[in-house]
Structures are given as C-alpha cells and as structure tokens.
From TrEMBL, chain A:
Annotated source species: Pseudooceanicola pacificus
Protein name, entry field: ABC transporter permease
Keyword annotations: Cell membrane, Membrane, Transmembrane, Transmembrane helix
Transport recorded as keyword: no
Alphabetized GO MF terms: transmembrane transporter activity
From TrEMBL, chain B:
Origin organism lineage: Bacteria, Pseudomonadati, Pseudomonadota, Alphaproteobacteria, Rhodobacterales
Keywords, sorted A to Z: ATP-binding, Nucleotide-binding, Repeat, Sugar transport, Transport
Tagged with keyword Disulfide bond: no
Source organism per UniProt: Pseudooceanicola pacificus
Highest rank taxon of the organism: Bacteria
InterPro entries for the chain: AAA+_ATPase (IPR003593), ABC_carbohydrate_import_ATPase (IPR050107), ABC_transporter-like_ATP-bd (IPR003439), ABC_transporter-like_CS (IPR017871), P-loop_NTPase (IPR027417)
Protein name: ATP-binding cassette domain-containing protein
UniProtKB/TrEMBL annotation, chain C:
Name this polypeptide is given: ABC transporter permease
InterPro entries noted in UniProt: ABC_transp_permease
Localization annotation: Cell membrane
Membrane topology: Multi-pass membrane protein
Domain of life: Bacteria
Plastid in keyword set: no
Keywords for the protein's UniProt record, in alphabetical order: Cell membrane, Membrane, Transmembrane, Transmembrane helix
Taxonomic placement: Bacteria, Pseudomonadati, Pseudomonadota, Alphaproteobacteria, Rhodobacterales
Ranges in a coiled coil: none
Keyword match Transmembrane helix: yes
Species of provenance: Pseudooceanicola pacificus
Segments passing through the bilayer: 20-41, 53-72, 104-125, 132-152, 172-190, 219-241, 253-271, 278-297, 303-319
Amino acid sequence: MNVFLARHGRPLISITILVLLFTYFISIHPRGLTLGVVTAWSNQGTALALLAVGQTIVVMSRGIDLSIGPILALSNCVASHLVDGTPAEIALGVVAVVLVGTACGTLNGLVVVFGRLQAIIATLATGAIFSGLALIVRPIPGGSIDAAFADVMTWTVADTIPAAFLVIAGSALIWYPIRKTRTGRTIVAAGSLENAAYASGLPVRRAKVLAYALSGFFASLGGLYIGFQTLSGDPSIGLSYTLNSIAAVVIGGTALTGGVGYVIGSIAGALILRTIGSLIFFNGIDPLAQPFFEGMVLLSAVAFGSLRLLRITHRLEMFK
Amino acid sequence: MGDPILELSGVGKRYGGIVALDSVDFKARSGSIHAILGENGAGKSTLMKLLAGTIRPSEGQMKVDGAPVDFRSPTEAARAGVVCIFQELSVIPDLSVAANVCLADPPRTRFGLIDRTRQIQIARRIFADMGVGQDIDVDARCSELPLSKRQLVEIAKALVRNPRILILDEATSALTASDVQPVMRLLRRLRDQGVLILLISHRMHEIDELADTCSVFRNGRHVETYRSGARTDQQVVQMMIGRPIEQIYPQKSDPATFGPTRLLVDRLSWTDRLKNISFELRAGEIVGLGGLDGQGQQEILEAVSGLLIGVEGTVTLHGGDGTTGTGSFALVSEDRKTGGLFLPLSVGRNLTATGQGAFSRFGIVDRKREQAYARGLVDKLQIKVGDLDSAVETLSGGNQQKVVLAKWLAVDPDILLLIDPTRGIDVGTKQEIYRLLRDLAAAGKAILIYSTDYDELIGLCDRALIVYDGQIAASLEGAALTEENILSSALRLGVTSPAMQEARA
Amino acid sequence: MSDVSVTKARPKLPVDGPTLANILAILALLVIGGLQYPQFFSPTYLAQQLQTGAFLGIVSAGAMLVILLGHIDLSVPWTMTAGATVATAVVGSDPQPWISETGLLAGLLVGATIGLVNGIGVAILRIPSMIWTLATNNVILGVLVYFSGYYARASQPSTLMTWFGTGRTAGLPNILIAWAVVSLVVLFVLRRTTYGRNIYMVGTSEVTAYLTRLPARGVIVASFVFAGLCSAFAGMLLAGYAGQSYQRMGDPYLLPGIAAVVLGGTSLFGGRGNYSGTVAGAILITLLASVLSIMQAPEALKQIAYGVVIIVMVGFYSLRDTRS
C-alpha cells in the first residue's frame, strides 16, 4: 500500500481535489446534479483533457509540446471546412482532421529527433508555422460543422452518460496499450534516462517521434471537439490552450522532468482548471476578477508541489 | 580455450586531432576471460565502445568468428552476440527491475503487448542463475535500488541476451563484497560454456583471480598480451604506465604526531539509516569508513557536511586555532560528474569556483589574478592540462579528480571529507592522490574517507571505522587493520567462519 | 570572444559561430529587402527598424540571463504591461515634470517585485520556472484586468519615457542608446563579475554549484529580478514610444524574446551562450519582420517564415555541434 501511494499519490491527490470541486460545483449549481449539468460540465473540459493526455505523453519522454495549441487551432479550422455534409463526408472529414493533427505532431517529432532541436524551441517554431497555416485555412473565425453530428458528440449516450465522458475515457484507454508495446515503453525509458535507453538498443528515435505524433493526434481530437461545441473554426485559440495543457499536466502530478507521467492525473488536472472557471461564474464573483482567480488558483496549485520540500530529509533532494 | 572469436587488425579511432586508438591488432579466444589493462586514456574504453557498437572505427577491420563486422548500433552488436556492460549504468531508473532486464527484447503476448508475467519469470530466472536471486525484488523500481543492486541489474540485462562475447567495463566496481563472489562464479561458468569475456578492471586482485589472458594498452596502442600469471604485478604496472613504480601507498604517520580533535561526532542518528554513531577525528589523521556498500558510510559524511535534515546528536567541527564550531570542511563527493565538476565549463572556471573572493573585489574579477590563481593550483597538484580554457570534461578521470581536489584545497579546509576519491582512476594518479592526502594530513588536516576498496582502507588509512547497518561495527587500527578483520566486521562474522573463508577466496 | 570554453580550444574570434550565422542571415535579409525596396539601405530606415527592435533587444537581454541558468521567464508579457501601466498611471495622476519621473521608478519597482516573486518561486520553492512564471503571468494579468477594468487608467508617459521612446541624440534614436547601455551592462556582468561566472556555473549544474557553496539561490533570484527589470523597462519605453500603455502590449515580445536568445546560440539547458549572439538574434528577428512587411506578406506567412528561420538556424547549430 505504501509503495502504491508513493507511486500514485500525486495523481490521487488531483483526483480527490477534482471530486471535491465537482461536489461543491454541483451543490451551488441552481439545477443541481442533473444529466444536463454534468454533460455541460464535461463538455467544457473535454478539449483540454484531450490536450493534456497528449502533452503528458510528450512530457513523459522528457519533451514538451508548445505547438499543441496551434495544432488544435489548425485542426479546428480544417474541421470547419471538412466536417459537414453527408455521413460519409463527415467521416472522411474527421479522418482528414486527425491525419492533419498527427502529421503536425510527427513533424514535431522529426524536427526534435533529427534536427536535434530542444523541444521548447522546436515546438515554439513549428507552433508558429501551424498558427500561420491555421490563418491560411481560415483567416477569420467561421465555417461550419455538421450540427447533428456535433450534437451526438456533445450530448449523451442513451440518456445515461455524457458522450464527453466516453471521449475522455477513450483517450486514456488509447494510451495504456501503447505503453505496453516496446516503442511505448521506450517513451518512458527515453524520458527517464535517454543515453541508457539508447545504449540498451531501444528505438529511442522512433519512440520520441511517436510521442509527438500522439500529442498531435490528441490535439486534433481536441480541435474537433471544440468544433463540435462552437460549430465553427477559429485560428486564434492556440496559445491559451498550450499554456493550460501544461498547467493541467503539472496539476495532475506529472513532473516536467520526464520518465514518469500520469495520464489520468492530467485529465483530472484539465477538469479541475475548467471547474474553477465554472465555480467563479456560479458564485457570482465579478467577471472582471475571473482572470485573477484563475491565476491565483494556478499559482497555488503549482505552489502545492513545493510542499514536498517539507518532507525531504536530504538537501540534495531539493534539486530533483 | 577455443579459436579466436574476435580479431582486430589495424583498428584506429580518431576524435578530431586526438588519436584514441592507434592501429590496434588484437585477438581473443572463445572460452576465455581476457583482461584489458591500462591507465585511463590508454584506449580501453574506446576499444570496448567500438566492440559494443556505440562508436565506429576510423580505420581497420574487426572480425567476429572470422567474418568482418561493422556495428552501427549496440543492437547490431548484440545481434552478432557482442554485449557490453557499461561502466556508466544503462539501467532505466523509472522502470521496474524486470522491465530493465528484458528491456531490449521484452517477451510479448499474442497481441504484441509486453507480457509482464513472463518478464518477471525471466528476470527471476536470470538472478537465480547469477546466484543473487534472493537479494533482488524484480518488481521494484530501479530508482529505489542502491547502486550495487543496479549494477546487478545491469549484468542481468546483458546475460539475458545470451552473449558470445561479453564485455565488462569496470562492471564490478560498484558491487558489494557479498555480490562480487557470485558474479565471479558466474563469469567462470560462462567461460566454461565457451563465452569470451573481456574484462576491464582496475582491481588487480580481481584480474589475478579471474583472467586467463591479459592485454596491456598504453596511449591507444596494444603493448603486449600474455598468459595470466606470466608477469609480476610490478612488471604489469610498469607496462601500463611506461615507467617503474615504487610502493603505491605512502608511509603512515606515527599516531603520536596526531594533533587535537578536529571533528567530534556524538550519538549521531538520522532516519533509519544512521544509529548512534560516535567517533572523533584528529588533526593529521586519515580515517577510513568501510564496510559493505550502502551501510551508511556516505550518510555519515553527508551528515557531517550538513546535507541531511532531521539529524539527531551533535557534530562539532573544531577550527585550526582550536576554536569550537568554526572548523571548515570540504566534501569531495563520489560522483565527479554531478557533485564535483561543471563538466562543460573550462578547467579554469572549475578550479576557481570556490575561491572567487581571492581575485575579485566588489564582485568584479581581476583577470590577471584569476589566471595566476588557477595556474598556481594546476602546478600545486600537477594537473596535466595544456589550456586552462579547455573543458574539464576533456580531461582523464584522474586529472578530473585532481581538479576537484584542487578547487577544495584552494580554500584550505580544516577537515577533508572524501567519498571514493580514486574510483575508476588509473594506478599512477591513484598513487599521486594517496601521497597528496598523506602530505595534507602531515600538514595538520584531518581526513575522513569513505572507500569501497579494502586495499585502500588498509594501505592509506591510519584507522578504519567499519559500518554495518548504520552503526559502527568496529574501529580497526595498526596491526588490527587487516583485510580479514575488515571483512569479518563488514559481514558481522567471526574471523574464522567458513563463509568468511569463501568470501576471501 | 568565446566566454564559455567549449569542448575544444578553438581560435578566439571576436564573434562565435551562432553570432556569425546571425550576421550572415542579417546581411542576406538586407540584400533581399534592398532589392524589393531601395530605401531599405538608407540609415534612416535602418535606424527606424532597429528602434522597433530595441524593445525586443532589452527583453531578450533579461531573458538571456534566465535562460543561461537553464530557466525560462514566461511572465514577460504582463510584466511589460504592468511596468508600463503603473508608470503611466503615476504620471497620469500628476503630470508634473520631475515628480512624474517617479513613475519610471514605480514601473521599475513593479518589474523588480515580479522578478523577485518569480525568483523565489523557482529558487526557494523549487517550482519549475516554466510553470511558475506562467502562473505569475496569469496573476498579473488578473490584477491588471481587475484594477483597470478592461481599459487602462489615465495613461500618460513621462517626459523621460517619451524622450527615450521617440527622441533622438546625434541622429540616433534614444531607445537604441538605452539598448546599448543595457547590453554593455549585461556584457560586463557576464564577463567580468563573479555573479556572471556564477550564472554559468549554476546554469551548468545547480547541484554542483550548491555543493561548491556558490550562492546558487541568490544568483537565480537576482537573475529573475534583472529579467523583471528589463521587461518593465522595455514596457515603459514602449509606452513612451506609443504615447500610452495598453493591454496585451507585451504579448508580441514573449516568444520572440526567447527565440532571439536561442537564435543567438544560447542553450536552453543553461550554462552555454554569448550575449553578442542574443543581440544579433534580436536584430535578425526584427529585420525578418520588416522585410516581410515590405513584401506585404500576410500575417500567416510571417508566422511561417519566423518558424522556418528558427528551425533552420537552430537546427544548423545543433547539427554542427554534433559533428564536432
């Protein structure tokens, strides 16, 4: 049990906080715990949760994806052109959007691995390129996405469970089998000690490219999901999503130092961030104060991590 | 002994203008343990890296089983049956022991996913084969294991690939005494099964005990290959350093010359790692901390340095002028790479890191005085460095350790705390460091040294404190400071017990 | 001159590899720009372009010290805005000469305070700088939005700010002089002071620095304070240049500020880099934007070109490093 807590304590804390916040949110919500309220709540957090899953995988490989928001924006803009019309067209459109996102992610991986660029600067640069492409695809917000399909994705399945829940659960379920492949394990190994992974003959390059490709894949799902909510495309939504995805990963208990990552924790982190926004709204706090509260919550969530300093028994543990 | 399984002809490796290996001809037979000897910088590690596929030769040809090979990666080398156990650990800290053992080629289920059950079985079997099965929890994360256990994982990782040529690059240097024996037995068994084992080690007695054949390298050249036992230690060392060598350890001091107490440790306890430790250290004295690896020796030094939080008991440092609590100390840490040096920075910057006050005023550096300061240290410790501006990582291990020592000696500490200061360093430099430490002690410094090398405890130290499970099990000095007594205290055994005899064998 | 010794002792040139690469790229841009638009070569036009680049240059001077430590400061945008907003509000409340110059001090104080909070979070609370400065940036944003109610209060630059922002001395824009002064200070600090030496050492390995008993925390806090001062100063000069402060005035300087440092050859891992490269990087980014403007490229194309230049140049450095 102690070993379990030591290994999974961080994500458990964020899940607990999410449950507490959600309970409070429901208690102050005028309509209380209804399927509609839960659905609206989960819809709000889905895109960020998807992004957080992708960001976690990259962070596990000891990288970071600053282009994740621009990929989301680009996917969203592409979707606003393609995800409309007959069911077949919609299906093809969805596939095309996912391919675009995955291709962007793969490009990131190739630049990081073969160009040997540091992840921060590489994805900063590709992010600029993807933002530019998003502007070309859709210079100003607009376009259209099939409303009927969007309704399916943003409402409930058989009137029992919000579709968003399934999307989020599905995203986590995609990762776990990948983690049990040799390449997937190499993502963790490369993040933990890259030289050792290489000396052990692991496919480090392939694994890193895969990590970024997966990040692009999840970003494209996020872009699609925003399209389902807004029924349009917007090229300018990237930056805040990038920063929030990193915040979600950190709140979820994953350290930016690589080797260890908690996909479930990051999903909880994303939902925590979104729940805070809703709480401010329903608490009747001056909307002008909302950015301040969001900032303070992020600041305290982040500062929470430094509580570990109180537990250390060796001063060099500070530097871990 | 079998046929030559490995053959090198005219193999060379250059890094820019630097020649690491100079047209080496070399043969080794299957079913033998072949030791590679040489000082640091002799080209041993370069040779091993070529064989393991982490680097490629600039010229010449390598043959395995008579067929020319050109390894482009460690994976290709492993496929040809060449597996290397590196000096730098290649264990992944965040994965389990079992996952690490099966890292390169994990067992899979029919869905192509990694089969954890079989992975655990494989790991258990390998450790049982190695004779250390009961010591290792294959489910633990490697980051939770001490260094010596990680080294065992490293060996298991290589064995699982059924090598025909197994390369050990200082692979036993981190093992504890109790783990070395099973590993040695295992190596002999592998040899008898027809495996070629290439062994790099600085532990001469280990080589005497294990090797069938030895090859000496110097300055990137293959000097000589001889049957084990055909040369005296003296001759071997001479071949390695290219000049005659006197006795390796300097003369010890007369205890009557020891000065006042410099360090007083009284009932020191910390978490569950240190229990009621008391001892004192006097000026002029060199005291060793010994015992099995990870019994708390390092923690004692860290507690004295103030690195540990929540320490009970008292640690008192006395200054050179006899004042209580004002003694200065320097901790020369175990790992030059993380604790001791700024590797990519220049030799000069590393040397001057501790004493910047000596050549600056109001935080502004006087460059001339800075240069003179660094030059002075280089001369004092005879560090072999051409350009103070070259990166310290380009120096040999021995010279790097000298830079670490120099930067601390520059601030003239009363007490010197050292953790394994000669690990992985060649004989010549070792000898220089021993002499330096003895001179420092004679000049009134108090020295506390944690060494994993029993020879060093016996040869260098005036007194050895043997630590067992966070307690001091014995304090040995004078005639009582023998390998037998150290081992018996370290293992908590009677001097004549059979297990003891075996450990010595 | 190479300030940090790299692996091999190379002959010492007045500029290192990345700086040279930047200078070559700058020359190429000048040629391209000149072919499109002959006035491009006129000293007036170039001075005008450099003037807009000076804000970026000052921001990247601060960013450089932080990046040399292996950290990053994402609070640049709202530190700039905060410095400018507070300074212009002080001036606006009482636009007397001399008294109003306390606005400049107030703005610098704001920058230093933000830097102090950043430094404490990173050095003492041990929070990764990327996430901590992201959080402080959001808090400043929140504070500014709340207190200024979505529009800036009485916003007026002081005489000195306007002098810096728009004035000229002997034909040179004063803002360029300000950039040069900041640059000389950074150069001196990095090369000739123990603090500069410590920056390189802490940036190479904080554990080693700690064990070597260097004042590692102090170095980190001081560098974040310096970065905060640079951001706030750049913000106030920008307010002087534009005649007012405004929301989001700092946004266009965050990522280019980091890019200038990295284009200049400084490693984001810390411990390696020369200030001359940062200056060249800032000029390169500025000229790239102005050449594209001359060619009337749309915003989308500017973004793409900007990304491609970073990948090509930084990729070139790292491939060169691997080969040697």
